Amino acid sequence: MSFIEPITLTGRHALLEPLTESHHDALVTAVADGELYKLWYTSAPPPQAMRPWIAAALAMREQEGALPFVIRDAGNGRVLGSTRYFHVDANNRRVEIGHTWLAQSAQRTGVNTDAKLLLLTHAFETLRCIAVEFRTHFMNRQSRAAIERLGAKQDGVLRNHQRLADGTLRDTVVFSIIESEWPTVKRHLQYLQQR
């Protein structure tokens, strides 16, 4: 059995299910809600690039480098976006949570917090991870604030870390939650769910 296996995770507001090609149309609808792909500092794919984006995510899964999910509204089943485990390091029991994007109508609802609670619970309590990492573009202040609200701590900034498709250089902000912090972070996320 490999370190990560496709799994469906169900929470109060979010349902995470393994990404498949059949999610294409629903993901196109979700990414068009708010035109997330127009934000230059995000990785949300434009509608016309959704098929290659899905193919790349599934290829990462086959190489055991990722476990991509679609995010559904747990109440009505509507696809709201995507997230994944990646940079999976089974030897050191670490994963990164990222490639997350949500339809604008689902932002600032309980969906993202619930999705992160599901992923973190699975990572720490089933996979027995010692650390879970998050990374975002330095200019993506909304994402940085959301990661901090989860209870993650900033580890540092990787300057000139990546070249983006438009040729600009990305400074990447790295956050993590470590195993000893998980009980407190979990309690905090459960509290946020009840508000």
From TrEMBL:
It comes from the Bacteria. This is GNAT family N-acetyltransferase. GO terms for molecular function: acyltransferase activity, transferring groups other than amino-acyl groups. Residues 15-153 form the N-acetyltransferase domain. Transmembrane segments: none annotated. It holds the Pfam family Acetyltransf_3. Signal peptide: none annotated. PANTHER family: BLL6696 PROTEIN (PTHR43610), N-ACETYLTRANSFERASE DOMAIN-CONTAINING PROTEIN (PTHR43610:SF1).
